[in-house]
Amino acid sequence: MSNTIEKSIEIKASRSRVWKALTDSKEFGAWFGINIEGPFKVGKVSSGKITIEGFTHVPWNSTIKAMEEPSYFAYTWHPYAVDPDVDYSGEPETLVEFWLEESDGQTSVRVRETGFDNLPPHRIADALRANTHGWGAQLENIKKHVEN
Fold this sequence. Notes:
Alpha-D-Glucose-1,6-Bisphosphate, Chain A, domain 4
């Protein structure tokens, strides 16, 4: 089993429009399903609450690692940290990276999440399974958000 998730999607919009949807914390929250407290800032923790039905008990915490306009955005987080009785803060985080490329009026969005092999062994398979499905859904969400 690979310890990396990589997915991509084509969006009928300019790279600058997709960049805004990805890096503006309010827009990111709208398509990702999070009520984020404050703007994204490199080196800072982004916090909020998940708004997706069934996960509203889950806090959002990520550290913004890079915002290289207009093509690269990255953050770290605790993947599939959904059990309210577990303190995940001592676990390693995975790295989520986005690359944007524009061609012929469309933007290709590629996301890659790495670092699952650093998680506690009992969490690796569930986190990989959940996030593999999750990234497919989230790419469709950003596409709908930007194209509508």
